[in-house]
Design goal:
Length: 416
């Protein structure tokens, strides 16, 4: 099988690059092992929340110039980032996903624990604030379902009360959710969301929570509405007579799963080939050129392309793997940045910035991958597999995936 571009990895980075290319006439295939980190998403994309020295960032565009020259953002360049700040939300809108926010100023988004973090773009389902102290409600009802343990109402109440709100906690029993409780493993966000695909079940919920909504300014509930469509959430908001503040639950995340599905379906509608449940195991590389890759499902049948994009992620998705004394990339054996002294990989303070978070694939300035010191002419690396950034400490994981993917895709289109 022959394609213009084969993308290895079906998470955010892989889908963004694939969609960008398909929208502009490339014939692409994405090889995806399975679930991606999008299933853990709290409904927002971070760009830059903190500099490596701990300085908080409110205007990411102003702060990017302070990053080290090896940081992926510096390779993409400020002009491109400003352009993608507008073009990425437009692309997501074409996929049916509406986002709010701007790279010129971070907003604050609620986490599943009720705390607030700085972020760039947020799904329209969710509430954002300009300042964490500017809570727009005085009295809040926090509603959960009995037996649903991935939504921590007490922690959320504690955080809201720190901001001056008075919280009323309640649980509501609904017969269709009670059926799930007969098997504790079924009481997960995705299964609950499926029950709310029926509008009559949302109507029953509205009747049950009506008494708790009378004397409050807003209602906080777990974001378990709309697994495959945004319509259940829209219906609930339209028929609830108080503002709704849905909070993403602990994983799996219903909004994250829906985003994954919407992006995948859009990529396929554009004519892309999505190979779900397959894994690239090895590659043919000759004279600095990737000729083909081989997957578990296709055995000895080569998948060939003019270009290849590595979007396999970091340690979490085994895009890079740690041995006791080294870190390696498992498909192409690419050059990886890491410290030879294992004691330097981590800090004993678990809340400190951890060096291993910056480990990843080394690339040329245009994100072409390097193997044994040689730049591979048609293999590019994007997203969290890249070295030089700390996605957790800097709050830049989503942004690095988006910006590097769009930049690489545009480079391929320019040279088409």
């Amino acid at each position: 099988m022959k394609f213009d571009t084969i993308i290895i990895g079906g998470g955010l980075a892989g889908l963004v690059s694939g969609i960008r290319l398909q929208e502009n006439g490339h014939n692409c295939a994405i090889v995806s092992t399975g679930q991606s980190a999008l299933h853990f998403s709290s409904g927002s994309f971070d760009l830059l929340g903190c500099l490596p020295d701990g300085t908080e960032v409110m205007n990411p565009l102003d702060a990017i110039g302070s990053l080290e020259s090896s940081h992926p953002y510096r390779l993409v360049g400020l002009d491109a980032i400003k352009r993608y700040d507008k073009e990425f939300p437009a692309m997501m809108q074409r996929a049916g996903i509406t986002l709010t926010g701007s790279a010129s100023r971070n907003s604050y988004h609620f986490t599943p624990m009720g705390t607030m973090k700085r972020t760039w773009l947020t799904l329209e389902d969710f509430v954002t604030l300009d300042e964490p102290s500017h809570l727009p409600w005085h009295r809040v009802a926090i509603i959960n379902f009995p037996g649903f343990l991935d939504f921590y109402t007490k922690f959320i109440a504690d955080e809201l009360e720190k901001q001056g709100a008075t919280c009323v906690l309640a649980t509501v029993k609904l017969p269709f959710i009670e059926k799930l409780r007969t098997n504790p493993t079924e009481m997960r966000s995705a299964n609950i969301a499926r029950t709310f695909d029926k509008t009559e079940n949302i109507d029953m919920l509205l009747r049950e929570i009506a008494s708790y909504c009378k004397d409050v300014d807003a209602v906080v509930m777990p974001a378990v509405f709309g697994l495959s469509s945004a319509e259940p959430m829209k219906y609930l908001k339209q028929h609830l007579d108080k503002p709704l503040c849905p909070l993403a639950t602990m994983p799996p995340s219903v909004p994250g799963i829906r985003m994954q599905q919407q992006l995948t379906h859009y990529f396929v509608r554009l004519g892309g080939t999505f190979m779900l449940g397959d894994t690239v195991e090895r590659a043919d590389v000759e004279s600095g050129l990737v000729k083909a890759v081989y997957t578990a499902n296709h055995a000895d049948i080569p998948l060939m392309a003019d270009h290849f994009i590595l979007a396999t992620g970091s340690f979490f998705s085994r895009g890079i793997i740690a041995r006791p004394d080294s870190v390696y990339e498992p498909i192409f054996d690419l050059d990886v940045l890491y410290d030879a002294d294992r004691t330097q990989w981590y800090d004993n303070d678990m809340f400190a910035s951890q060096n291993y978070m910056k480990y990843g694939v080394i690339t040329a300035p245009d994100f072409r991958a390097i193997c044994k010191g040689e730049t591979l002419s048609n293999l590019y690396a994007v997203g969290s597999v890249l070295s030089g950034h700390d996605a957790l400490h800097e709050g830049c994981g989503g942004g690095v995936s988006i910006m590097s993917s769009m930049y690489v895709a545009d480079g391929l289109l320019k040279n088409k």
